[in-house]
Amino acid sequence: MADPATYRPAPGEIPDAPGVYRFRDEHGRVVYVGKAKSLRNRLNSYFQDIAGLHPRTRQMVTTAAAVQWTVVGTEVEALALEYTWIKEYDPRFNVKYRDDKSYPYLAVTMADEVPRVQVMRGAKRRGTRYFGPYAHAWAIRETVDLLLRVFPVRTCSAGVFKRARQQGRPCLLGYIDKCSAPCVGRIGVDEHHQLAQDFCDFMAGDTARFTRRLTRAMKEAAAELDYERAARLRDDIKTLEKATERNAVVLSDGTDADVFALAGDELEAAVQVFHVRDGRIRGQRGWVVEKVEDIDDAALVEHLLQQVYGSEDPEAATASVPREVLVPVLPTDVEQVQAWLTGLRGSRVQVRVPQRGDKRELAATVLRNAEHALALHRTRRAGDLTSRSMALREIQEALDLPSAPLRIECYDVSHNQGTYQSASMVVFEDGLARKNEYRLFTVRGPQGQGARDDTAAMHEVITRRFRRYLAERADSHDPELGDDAEDDVPRTGPVDERTGRPTRFAYPPNLVVVDGGPPQVAAAAAALAELGIDDVALCGLAKRLEEVWLPGEEYPVILRRASEGLYLLQRVRDEAHRFAITAHRKRRSKGMTVSVLDDVPGLGPARKAALLRHFGSVKRLRAASAEEIATVPGMGERTAQAVVAALATPADPGTDVSAALPGGSTEPGDGEPGILGA
Q1: Which of 137, 151, 274, 405 could make a disulfide contact with 511, Cβ separation 3.0–4.6 Å?
Q2: Which of the residue ranges 122-131, 371-380, 425-434, 439-448 has the most confident prediction, judged by mean pLDDT?
Q3: Distance CA 81, CA 70 (A)
Q4: Using an 8 Å Cβ cutoff, are 560 and 568 in contact?
């Protein structure tokens, strides 16, 4: 642990102005981000007598090894910059609101040429309108199924849409009048875009306009004695009314507000929010947060509003930020928060505590939901924090480490008789998986054909990972420190100066775990020794008896079968194995899929894609002449003749000629991040 006095700024260095500050640890990692009206007053409060600090604050300042700050013009700018840095650096000691589930949204991809209605989860995309969140995906599908009768917007995937366009025949939804079939030109692109816009307007609460329009059309059809059309319009009106009634009216004045409630104690808190649009509850969402920093409810609410509204696409912020934000406690700097939200929405936003009437009753309902969510969270995760702390402590004692291994990296190699060799690196921090820091390696070997065995593959992977760490530590520096910074101040910056994103291998682990016994451990130890790294602990976990092997030791370390430490090591090892075998299977599947076009001279992936896009299939391409093939953009006469010659040879019955289209993803499956060939 560092003494805060060793990196305390000299008197007079800290400006008396608003700004944002960052505390970094000995490796340059940002561990805390904060903002202040006066940087001088706020930062000086961290360097008082350490015994007088809150335990969480004391842990943060002793973990840090340097402090930096950036002066901004106004407190609103400081609020926005603080959120940006928290999102970018993911500091360990900042409060993070994590969803207790992945909430589904109803999304309309308005940025597409032909917009699509679908269920979406995860990060929001630019140019897409979102409605919700909903508690269940089936609730979205029921609503969409009702509205497609009135607004027959495309719902099919890109592959289905493309195939229908090539075949000139719509899918089933087009035949049953639940899609306007823009794929076959039954409706124009501009008309379909307007249809999607009407769908969005209805979902946004403008329901009366469409009901009036359909009612007027129904009366006109009845006056013209077109009773069949009038009956269809009558049914459409009932459909809209049914879809509208799914959201109960809670406020009669067309309120546009988000209602927040907070329930918790000194260690954790649960947050619930009801999204009310046009007087109806359109969605509900919840978070559970661990209070890793010493802040009160007002600061918690401020951080919450930053997270909820700060991540919005600027184009969608007008629809996402309501006119009113009802909170249980006003944020610390309520004027600055209101100014920030007003800038996002483009019109005035009021942040206040409801005092009376229907809004206060609704806030009480949201609070009951938050209390229930906190009780459920405690029931599900009772002892979880204690178990993780116990596991890290047991590993520290068993391996005789100087401190608890807060960051653990585990490596595994997967192959099939030496082919398609892939290796994984998984990361656990504070006993929890950090999937955004997982990495994949393609094992090349000295000749580019793969390593000779598992130990050579492990040696290569460890070497490549830590060589990158040493290179990034040497190359990266923080320009804020300047060239005349003290030698004892960390200069390693975790952010790539070109992209602004964290570098891949910026931080060393406290513990490296390899999947295997003494041979794999010896190979990893040799790789670390060759690079001169002696401050990273290393062990191996053998599958047969779950023995923990240390470098150079004749006998393994035996952990109790029921120990939390062994359980954590097993989870890390199993996750590395799962991640490696997923990558290996994907490479093997891709390598075993061949095409008759692969060996055509001068025909690369782009030209193959262009051919299949133009003709739709290899079967149609085989029937085309050289002159027809030469009309495809990028194709010349010589290449067209080569394609005709290649396709004139009968294909092997076991060959999958339909897989000629290149562009298979090199990212790992299951939606997890990773880098092949890192």
Answers
A1: 405
A2: 425-434
A3: 9
A4: no
In the chain, the amino acid numbered 361 is E
**Contacting residues for 449 by C-beta, under 8 A, at least 6 apart:** none
The b/e string for 318-337 (b: 16+ C-beta within 10 A; e otherwise) is ebbbbebbbbbbebbbbebb
Amino acid identity of residue 301, one-letter, is V
Taking CA atoms, 368 is separated from 359, 364, 372, 376, 559, in Å, by: 14, 6, 6, 12, 44
Which pLDDT score, from 0 to 100, does residue 450 have?
73
The candidate with the shortest Cα–Cα distance to 326, out of 273, 284, 269, is 273
d(CA 404, CA 428): 13
- Whether the Cβ atoms of residue 193 and residue 222 lie closer than 8 Å to each other: no
User: Locate tokens 């308005």: which residue?
Assistant: 110
Q: Read off the tokens for 289.
A: 């947060």
Q: Can you give the pTM of this predicted structure?
A: 0.49
Per the listing, tokens 């007079």 go with 12
> Which parts of 54-147 are beta strand (E)?
66-71, 98-99, 105-108, 117-120, 129-131
Q: At what angle do helices 454-475 and 518-530 cross, to 10 degrees?
A: 30
Closest CA to 528 of 445, 458, 462: 462
CA distance 657 to 595: 5
Dihedral sign for Cα atoms in the order 276, 125, 494, 101: positive
Question: In Å, how far from its chain's centre is CA 224?
Answer: 55
Per the structure block, which two tokens stand in for 394?
Answer: 């047991």
Nearest one of 541, 605, 606 to 572, comparing CA atoms: 541
For 4, the token pair is: 């805060």
- Asked if the bond preceding 133 is cis, omega within 30° of 0, the reply is yes
